[in-house]
Specification:
The protein has 16 helices and 14 strands. With about 500 residues, it is α/β, with parallel strands linked by helices. Bound molecules: flavin mononucleotide and iron/sulfur cluster.
């Protein structure tokens, strides 16, 4: 496994918007010694590798474009979608992607919501959740002409440590184990209670019930979310927890296996997917110092030297936790294959404690830090991890993440990655918020509208941190005009300035 490339100063990061053409971009990749494949020419229509179907046993997906789950935190207090939620799901459909990975995170329990405006799956929301799916399919037909080969999932979640069900700025964490660095950020002590085994069993039952409801509502699969620091992911790293759900690999994956068993019993024809943070690092924080030029210094890792071997995460090197370690990731994918999970979405880290590895960006969110590495390094890391996993698990359908930072060059890189077999489908996240049909248009040979390309301003992350719905404030008029881009800019400025990295 290739090691992450050395850090670069944030002042030396080359803006991709300033690179004039693909040849220059390829030369830039070479000069940075980054192994990111990039095709010179985009192939069109059915010739495009991105438009070839995936056939894997009885599973058929019409093309290689996947819409990643993108939450808006714009639901009602009782967990129902609003008009802006419907608008976003329509735009997922407009992407032309035949794999809709989850739509967005939907909580299986009210107390496990990450935000008081997160969607909830419950009897009183079922009708509206089915409506989201219908709206998406309608719009998808307008883009592609048919819903053939369209596979739609629903992402099921419990936010665990990052639960904030009552107020956006009031954490109500449900933790699986004591994490010395993250507990401190949440003001938790060693006496703060852990979720008990029987509470975890109750949550497993809720996942089972939610999956049964999702099947009834017409979803083709559910994603049992195991990423980004939420409960499933936290349990994978619960090395120090005692009892049935902690310690050994077998115990740390029991949560997953018991949910899969419940789905096999109650919704036998429903497919199952898992989105997993396939690698991790220690939490990073804002550095209050500035460079000589007055720019913020790159974010830095929390002090971990007294915590070695580091036992507080999944797929992180215990001897040097600013490095990833895929040993257990391979075991985890082998387990997924064994229990009949065919769809796997590869992501990394967490937006709360190390966003630069999870969603590479030039501009940090309001609770973030200046990039500690060129965001292209983050893109390359995610692609390389996915490539390694794909080589070992040819029968799993793997979706790759974190491509939006590639901006103009996203179609060239996406095509190359699929063509070379690095990944089965290219997942698009932030770009969906600004320019959902970008990859579809590129493979149709349409002129690309550069003004709509996501420039990774991170306002879609800052907004929910400041109690606003998430959306693309800089580039999507719907948010700028009707919800208040100015409000967000003011909030972002003051929060980022004052952030000492001590809070999430
Ligand atoms: C505003 C916002 C909301 C997101 N919501 C979810 C979510 O509900 N579930 C999830 O697994 N990932 C979520 N993500 C992560 C994305 O799916 C994706 O992994 C990440 O943005 C990196 O991909 P990109 O470079 O294409 O944006 C979200 C990201 C953003 C910026
Ligand atoms: S706010 Fe818009 S431009 Fe910025 S990262 Fe989000 S989608 Fe991209």
């Amino acid at each position: 496994m290739e090691k992450a490339k050395p850090n670069m100063s944030s002042e030396s990061i080359v803006r991709l918007g300033a690179i004039r053409n693909v040849a220059e971009f390829q030369a830039h990749l070479n000069s940075c010694q980054l192994t990111i494949p990039c095709d010179s020419e985009i192939q069109l229509g059915l010739e495009s590798p991105l438009r070839k179907p995936i056939q894997c046993g009885t599973l058929k997906i019409g093309n290689r474009i996947a819409a990643q789950p993108m939450e808006g935190w714009d639901g009602t207090i009782d967990g129902n979608p609003t008009e802006s939620t419907v608008r976003r799901w329509r735009r997922f459909g407009r992407s032309g992607g035949k794999l809709i990975w989850g739509g967005e995170a939907v909580a299986v329990a009210a107390e496990g919501r990450a935000n008081p405006h997160q969607l909830l799956i419950a009897p009183h929301t079922e009708k509206a959740l089915a409506g989201l799916r219908t709206a998406l399919v309608e719009e998808h037909r307008l883009t592609t002409g048919s819903a053939d080969g369209l596979l739609i999932g629903l992402q099921l979640t419990h936010s665990g440590r990052f639960s904030r069900p009552s107020q956006y700025d009031r954490p109500e964490p449900r933790i699986a184990y004591h994490h010395p660095l993250l507990d401190a950020r949440l003001g938790l002590s060693s006496e703060s209670p852990l979720l008990t085994d029987s509470e975890i069993e109750g949550i497993i039952q809720k996942f089972g019930a939610a999956a049964t409801a999702a099947e009834k509502l017409g979803f083709d699969f559910v994603d049992i979310k195991h990423c980004h620091g939420y409960l499933g992911h936290e349990l994978l790293g619960a090395h120090t927890r005692e009892g049935r759900y902690g310690g050994s690999f077998e115990n740390r994956t029991r949560f997953l296996r018991e949910i899969v068993d419940a789905i096999h019993v109650n919704a036998p024809s429903l497919r199952i997917g898992v989105r997993v943070s396939a690698f991790d690092m220690v939490p990073f924080r804002h550095d209050a110092e500035h460079t000589k030029n007055g720019s913020p210094r790159p974010g830095r890792p929390d002090r971990f030297e007294d915590l070695l071997p580091y036992r507080y995460g999944f797929a992180v090197n215990p001897e040097n936790p600013v490095e990833i370690d895929l040993t257990e990731t391979f075991r985890f994918l082998a387990l997924l294959e064994e229990v009949g999970v065919q769809l796997v979405n590869i992501t990394g880290g967490s937006p709360y404690y190390n966003p630069h590895i999870q969603r590479p960006a030039l501009y940090p969110p309001s609770d973030g830090y200046a990039p500690p590495e060129d965001p292209l390094v983050g893109v390359a890391r995610q692609m390389e991890v996915t490539r390694c996993l794909k080589q070992s698990f040819p029968s799993l359908v793997l979706v790759g993440s974190a491509y939006s930072y590639l901006q103009e060059f996203l179609p060239n890189v996406a095509q190359a990655a699929v063509r070379l077999g690095w990944v089965d489908a290219v997942g698009i996240g932030r770009m969906l918020l600004t320019y959902p049909e970008f990859l579809w248009d590129a493979t149709e040979g349409r002129v690309i509208d550069r003004k709509r390309i996501c420039r990774t301003f991170s306002d879609c992350t800052s907004a929910p941190r400041n109690g606003l719905p998430s959306g693309c404030y800089p580039l999507d008029g719907f948010y700028r005009d009707s919800i208040g881009g100015e409000t967000l800019r003011t909030l972002k400025k003051s929060t980022f300035k004052g952030n000492k990295g001590s809070e999430l």
